[in-house]
């Protein structure tokens, strides 16, 4: 084994041990941030050690610096010579990295259940990669009982998220004045959704406020976080031998995002029913109805179809955004055209715009 690989492995294991140590500490000061930052560091070094062990490179030609976290994940996932990751493993890595980014650069609040699933699935994934690449059991490098321990381990993602949403609703009750706390709490859920959808960007204040409003209005979990509800965690063993792995539900595809997308993670999960439900672009609808797509967009705006998830969704894969409509939207637009003169409507809209 090359000395560089050996040193990367050793430092990586050090960070893993420290991450678990901070998780198991009896006080909370800085605990969430320490666990996420150290876990992320452990994985970046392990990924680079694994790439080198498989004969790959961790520097671009002529570059003094090593590649970053995303590039390391991509090489471990798609480079035929060094491949050692599955798409589901990449999703786990992306989630930890996205949460670490928020913890290091701004504010984030994870419940005990959330922190546990990310820490435990992280330790399991670390063990799997270590065994796959080096043929070694990482337990041999760890002190006894190095394992995240929690008295609030969640049953599944859906139960966890529903519990989180109920807590956020309480913060948003009239008179509480806990909007900032609600945003901080929902940030972790939004980042989880973004990362599994391949979106590397951190949620903005406006996006978080919209999510808060939708939660307050009682919108369903499936509409709020469609990517997350497409996933689950499989559990094996018990006690000191417990393993927790992120898995996708049957029939859910994972797409590899094209390289060069600066705002996208290497992989993105999309629900089959989501892509099938929002199957139409505005030009295709306009063509089927025999009208101008520009005029039809004016009707869409007038009817506020883009505000209703039954009719419209902005689907993001990496930094690419696709405005998609459902068959229900086509029906609503067809009914409008049957009952209204489109040209007259268009002229009225132009007059309104000119008078503003």
TrEMBL record:
Domain DUF3644: 10-156
This protein's name: DUF3644 domain-containing protein
Superkingdom of origin: Bacteria
Organism: Pseudodesulfovibrio senegalensis
Database matches in InterPro entries: DUF3644
Pfam families: DUF3644
